[in-house]
Design brief:
Layout lengths: L1 E3 L11 H6 L5 E2 L3 E2 L1 H14 L16 H13 L5 E5 L8 H13 L3 E5 L3 H7 L2 E6 L2 E7 L5 H9 L22 E8 L2 E8 L4 E5 L6 H8 L5 E8 L2 E3 L4 H6 L2 E4 L3 H5 L6 H6 L14 H15 L15 H14 L4 E5 L7 H16 L3 E5 L3 H7 L2 E6 L2 E7 L5 H8 L8 H6 L1
Parallel strand pairs: 1-4, 4-5, 10-15, 10-16, 13-14, 14-15
Antiparallel strand pairs: 2-3, 6-7, 8-9, 8-11, 11-12, 16-17
Length: about 425
């Protein structure tokens, strides 16, 4: 049995080659790792699985998330297990067809696959039978062909729901200065990017993996230095050289990797949320648990996080509830501009709907959101506009009326927007 985990199990300080062959890498003299041999074998193995862009000698920590996800999947598959468990394997993949082809191959070889996903199209495409779990119990076990979409979502969410995006009237306020304006930003992985984000607006960001979206978000909150360019917040130029400076300006990043960048794993859920307001909960330098809970209650209701989870360690929560806690902390910090980097990655249908509602309520209250997602449906249905990145540049600024998945894909792939859409989708 082999497993590819949603929360990646790779060792970030070790090389790609060593991670691939753990826990039994080749050794010399019974104790020393045969590094050169491992790297040669890893290069051959990765090529067998259609991966040529990853250097086997590179530390895993230097790889983008999508490449780490691929590495996790290959490590599980190459041992030819009889049972393969894949836990949300496409959560960070931009090319799902690569994985689907591999699954077809291992199925043909006689491997059984247990595939865990919240994405209905994947279940229908890959699976013959579906088991639905809710609150730790099996609530449905049936052939996929015999289940309707509504039945699946009703059993997943505990209520009648479909995974669709409700169009809402735009709340963009053009009569006031932009919540954030970026002009000619240049830095590592950021090549002369400019944009304006108004209060009440959800501005999407789209791009294929590795085209600058992660570096852009980090640059806007001081996690990555810029060589030149200007950032204005509410009409005033600001030097956002650190996350602290960005927070003081009301700009809060909800990061890409919830497990390693979003939560404090050793703290309770309430402590994770209350950190930005800890001074308000500490009269006389002593923490008042009562005041802390009172402050946190205000945001837990907004993010739909059940109050009984607050005393628990945050690692005891599901991924969706952990993400709600991260969003709650952002609201607790007094965010006026939220930078959301793929916030629904790997969360269930109910948590997705809660996150969409938080986003809508935030902009209706005058906030502004810069929103990156690997789910093109989210960008199409939630955003007022969408910036499309290609090779670290903005190659398109598409307004809602013209925003389609085909248009995003054509721009993100570097195609001429005037080309035929059918050709672009196939490409």
């Amino acid at each position: 049995m082999a497993t590819a985990f949603q929360e990646l199990s790779l060792v970030p300080t070790m090389s790609v080659a060593l991670n691939l062959f753990l826990p039994r890498p080749a050794v010399r003299f019974a104790v020393l790792v045969a590094r050169r041999r491992l790297e040669r074998e890893a290069k051959t193995l990765l090529a067998e699985y259609g991966i040529t862009e990853i250097d086997p000698a590179a530390p895993v920590a230097d790889l983008p998330l999508g490449q780490r996800q691929r590495l996790e999947i290959v490590r599980a598959m190459f041992r030819r297990p009889r049972l393969l468990l894949l836990d949300e394997p496409t959560a960070a993949l931009s090319d799902r067809d690569w994985l689907f082809a591999l699954i077809a191959r291992v199925l043909a070889e006689g491997t059984s696959v247990l595939y865990i996903s919240h994405k209905l199209d994947e279940i229908r495409r890959l699976c013959s039978r579906c088991i639905i779990l809710r609150n730790g119990s099996k609530v449905l076990d049936r052939a996929v062909a015999d289940m309707s979409d509504d039945e699946i979502f009703r059993n997943m969410a505990g209520r009648s729901a479909v995974e669709r995006f409700l169009a809402t009237p735009s709340s963009v306020r053009m009569e006031v200065p932009p919540a954030m304006r970026a002009a000619n930003l240049i830095g590592e992985g950021v090549d002369d990017i400019s944009f304006s984000l108004q209060p009440g607006e959800i501005l999407g960001v789209a791009g294929l993996e590795g085209h600058g979206q992660s570096r852009l978000f980090k640059s806007l909150v001081g996690l990555q230095p810029l060589r030149s360019g200007r950032i204005e917040v509410s009409g005033t130029q600001r030097a956002l050289r650190s996350p602290r400076a960005a927070r003081a300006a009301g700009i809060i990043l909800v990061p890409e990797e919830r497990k390693s960048e979003g939560i404090f794993k050793d703290l309770t859920t309430i402590a994770n949320i209350s950190l930005p307001a800890i001074e308000r909960a500490s009269p006389g330098y002593l923490l008042s648990r009562r005041r802390e809970r009172m402050l946190v209650r205000r945001v837990t209701a907004e993010v739909d996080l059940p109050e009984q989870y607050l005393p628990l360690g945050v690692t005891a929560l599901s991924g969706g509830n952990q993400q709600k806690a991260v969003l709650g902390r952002a609201l607790m910090a007094g965010a006026r501009c939220l930078l959301l980097f793929d916030p629904t990655r790997g969360v269930d249908v109910g948590a997705k709907q809660s996150i969409y509602r938080v986003m809508r309520d935030f902009v209706e209250g005058g906030g502004a959101i810069l929103f990156y997602s690997t789910e093109l449906d989210e960008l199409v249905h939630l955003c007022d506009r969408c910036l499309v990145l290609y090779r670290n540049r903005v190659v398109g600024d598409v307004h809602r009326a013209a925003l389609t998945q085909e248009q995003i894909l054509s721009l993100a792939a570097g195609h001429d927007p005037g080309a035929t859409r059918t050709t672009l989708v196939k490409a």
